[in-house]
Amino acid sequence: MKVGYLGPEASFTHTATKIAFPNDELVPYHSIPACIKGVDSKEIDLAVVPIENTIEGSVNTTVDYLFHQSTIPVIGEIVLPIHQQLMVAKKNSNDWKKITKILSHPQALAQSQLFISEHFPLAELEPTPSTAYAAHYVSSNPKEKIAAIAPRVSAETYDLKIVCNDIQDIAINRTRFWVLGSKKISLSIPVEEKKMTIAITMPNNMPGALHKALSAFSWREIDLSKIESRPLKTSLGEYFFLIDINVLKPKELLENAITEVRLMGGTVKIFGSYEVHSIHGM
């Protein structure tokens, strides 16, 4: 089976994918949309993409692309502990405090703001497509006074020196990754819970529209673990609501709640019903 992931090799997504699918062929993609399109075009069987981080919240590129442009279902979730490391070319390891530019994925830069502001307040911050891309660039340009923020495995892969460990703003930092595809999967990672994710759009002229939609779940005592609004990209003030549901109630109750929302005039897109697998000990 071919499993695509947001690459390149040694990114956090690659680590999560490798642990979840150790015996499958892993295919890196340069962006989240390209990874999802790989499933659409049947180049790959499954895709693994980031969906949310403890510090920075949802990965909007994933949410928006799946809502607006794809019907690929979510069939699993992987939760990975995230530890950010500051790394430089080995020839610069003695002068690492003189670096003038730090490269990384925007989420990693945001997750390390306290460290950066304290130690490198004047450094230029350059976003890259992934943490591993940043590490590869630093490795390929050893003459520049630059550093990368990336996972430990990136230092090993690209022969860099870690000069500061675990620089993320909070110790308990985790990222959720969605597994996308139509095939059934069976992962060896322990299952912590079962969830369903849906997107609801309500009529604009309905007073208390969101309250009415949520009431369909509330009176049935269905546990919602997350509610988030995202622009519909039609006009200002129009949104869809992304909702995560803890699947603790009978399936019929969930189906009836969704039917009630639709009877109110709302539209419901079901992203998927899936198991959550948490990786520990990293």
From TrEMBL:
<dbReference type="GO" id="GO:0005737">
    <property type="term" value="C:cytoplasm"/>
</dbReference>
<keyword id="KW-0584">Phenylalanine biosynthesis</keyword>
<keyword id="KW-0028">Amino-acid biosynthesis</keyword>
<dbReference type="GO" id="GO:0009094">
    <property type="term" value="P:L-phenylalanine biosynthetic process"/>
</dbReference>
<keyword id="KW-0057">Aromatic amino acid biosynthesis</keyword>
<dbReference type="InterPro" id="IPR045865">
    <property type="entry name" value="ACT-like_dom_sf"/>
</dbReference>
<dbReference type="InterPro" id="IPR001086">
    <property type="entry name" value="Preph_deHydtase"/>
</dbReference>
<protein>
    <recommendedName>
        <fullName>Prephenate dehydratase</fullName>
        <ecNumber>4.2.1.51</ecNumber>
    </recommendedName>
</protein>
<feature type="domain" description="Prephenate dehydratase">
    <location>
        <begin position="2"/>
        <end position="182"/>
    </location>
</feature>
<dbReference type="InterPro" id="IPR002912">
    <property type="entry name" value="ACT_dom"/>
</dbReference>
<keyword id="KW-0456">Lyase</keyword>
<comment type="pathway">
    <text>Amino-acid biosynthesis; L-phenylalanine biosynthesis; phenylpyruvate from prephenate: step 1/1.</text>
</comment>
<dbReference type="InterPro" id="IPR018528">
    <property type="entry name" value="Preph_deHydtase_CS"/>
</dbReference>
<feature type="domain" description="ACT">
    <location>
        <begin position="198"/>
        <end position="275"/>
    </location>
</feature>
<feature type="site" description="Essential for prephenate dehydratase activity">
    <location>
        <position position="175"/>
    </location>
</feature>
<dbReference type="GO" id="GO:0004664">
    <property type="term" value="F:prephenate dehydratase activity"/>
</dbReference>
<dbReference type="Pfam" id="PF00800">
    <property type="entry name" value="PDT"/>
</dbReference>
<dbReference type="InterPro" id="IPR008242">
    <property type="entry name" value="Chor_mutase/pphenate_deHydtase"/>
</dbReference>
